[in-house]
Specification:
This protein is of the alpha/beta class and 307 residues long. The chain is 44% helix and 13% strand. It has nine helices and eight strands.
C-alpha cells in the first residue's frame, strides 16, 4: 500500500514572518534537512528559514550552495552586510521580480506624469500631508531633503544627542560619530527588510522614482516612507545611552520597532498603494505573445515567490 505523498512546501507570506536575523560567525548549511549555522566547535543552531524574511550575513559567515538553494525556495532574502550590520554589499533574490509587475513598474517610472504622481504619493505618506502643488520631481526631492535634515535635528534635540549633520565614510566605519553610526546601522536593517518585501511582491529594487541609478533605488524610495516612524527614533534613543556595542543595540531596537509597528503587514500594501497612484493600468500581454510552456505552481506566498 502506497503512503500518501505530502504536498510540497509553500512559502509563508512575508507579513507572517520574523523580520530579520543577523548571523555574525559560522557556516550556513543544510544538514539532515535542517537549515543550520555551524560554529567553529561544530555546534549546530537551527534557523527556521521559511519563517524569516531576511538573513543578514556579516563578515565571518560562509554559505553553502544547499543553504542558498533552500533560502531561495522558501523566499528568504540573503543579504551580505558589513561589520555591525551596515554597508549592504550584495543580496540574493528570494523569488525575483515577476514580468507583469516589472513591466508595470518600469512603465510608471518612464512616464513623467505617472512618475510625478507616484513621487507625490510617497511624499504624502512620508510627511502625512499633501505634496506642494505644481512642483517637479527635482523640486520635491529638494523639499524632502530640507525636511529630512530638520527632522534629524528635532529628534537629536528630543533625545539629547549632539548632532552636526548626516555624514559618514563607509570605507572607515570607526571614524563616524556615534549618532551617524547608529543611523547607518538602523537604515541598513530597514533597507534589508524592505528589499526582501520588494522582491517578494514581484518588483525590481533598481527601478526607483525619487532615487535612481542604484541597485536599491526603489528600496530606498519605499524604506524612506517608514524611516522616521521606525528606525530613526530608535537610532537616536540608542545613541543617547552611549552603549558599548551600539550597532548590536540598534539591531535589537529595530527588530522591536518592526514588530511593534507591524512593519511587514504594512510594507507590501504600501508598495501597491504607491504604484497605483500613477493611475496607469497594468500592462497586458500582447495577443501574439507565447505563454509559459509549464504553468507556475500555485503558491500561498507573496507574488514574487517561485512557488
Amino acid at each position: 500500500m502506497h503512503q500518501p505523498v505530502l504536498p510540497p512546501v509553500k512559502p509563508i507570506a512575508i507579513k507572517d514572518r520574523i523580520s530579520v536575523l543577523f548571523l555574525e560567525k559560522g557556516n550556513l548549511d543544510v544538514l539532515d534537512g535542517a537549515f543550520v549555522v555551524v560554529d567553529r566547535n561544530g555546534v549546530r543552531t537551527h534557523i527556521p528559514v521559511g519563517g524569516v524574511a531576511c538573513l543578514m550575513l556579516e563578515p565571518g559567515t560562509r554559505v553553502s550552495h544547499a543553504a542558498v538553494t533552500l533560502a531561495s525556495r522558501v523566499g528568504c532574502l540573503l543579504v551580505w552586510v558589513g561589520e555591525g550590520g551596515v554597508r549592504l554589499y550584495a543580496s540574493g533574490q528570494p523569488g525575483g521580480a515577476r514580468a507583469d509587475r516589472l513591466l508595470y513598474q518600469a512603465k510608471l517610472a518612464m512616464d513623467d506624469a505617472a512618475r510625478l504622481k507616484v513621487v507625490r504619493k510617497m511624499y504624502s505618506l512620508r510627511f502625512k500631508e499633501e505634496a506642494p502643488a505644481r512642483r517637479s520631481v527635482e523640486q520635491l526631492r529638494g523639499i524632502e531633503g530640507a525636511r529630512v535634515r530638520k527632522m534629524y535635528e528635532l529628534l537629536a534635540r528630543q533625545y539629547g544627542v549632539p548632532w552636526k549633520h548626516r555624514d559618514y565614510d563607509p570605507t572607515k566605519w570607526g571614524s563616524g560619530d556615534l549618532p551617524n553610526r547608529c543611523l547607518s546601522a538602523a537604515t541598513a536593517c530597514l533597507y534589508g527588510i524592505t528589499e526582501a518585501a520588494v522582491l517578494a511582491a514581484g518588483y525590481a529594487p533598481a527601478i526607483g522614482f525619487i532615487h535612481t541609478g542604484k541597485p536599491q533605488s526603489f528600496v530606498y524610495d519605499i524604506g524612506d516612507i517608514f524611516k522616521f516612524d521606525t528606525v530613526v527614533p530608535a537610532a537616536f534613543r540608542i545613541a543617547a545611552g552611549r552603549p558599548l556595542d551600539p550597532e548590536r543595540e540598534v539591531r535589537l531596537a529595530c527588530r522591536d520597532a518592526f514588530r511593534q509597528s507591524r512593519f511587514l503587514d504594512r510594507i507590501i500594501p504600501t508598495i501597491e498603494d504607491v504604484l497605483a497612484a500613477g493611475e496607469i493600468p497594468r500592462p497586458v500581454p500582447p495577443a501574439e505573445s507565447v505563454g509559459p510552456a509549464i504553468p507556475n505552481k500555485e503558491s500561498i506566498g507573496n507574488a514574487g515567490h517561485r512557488g
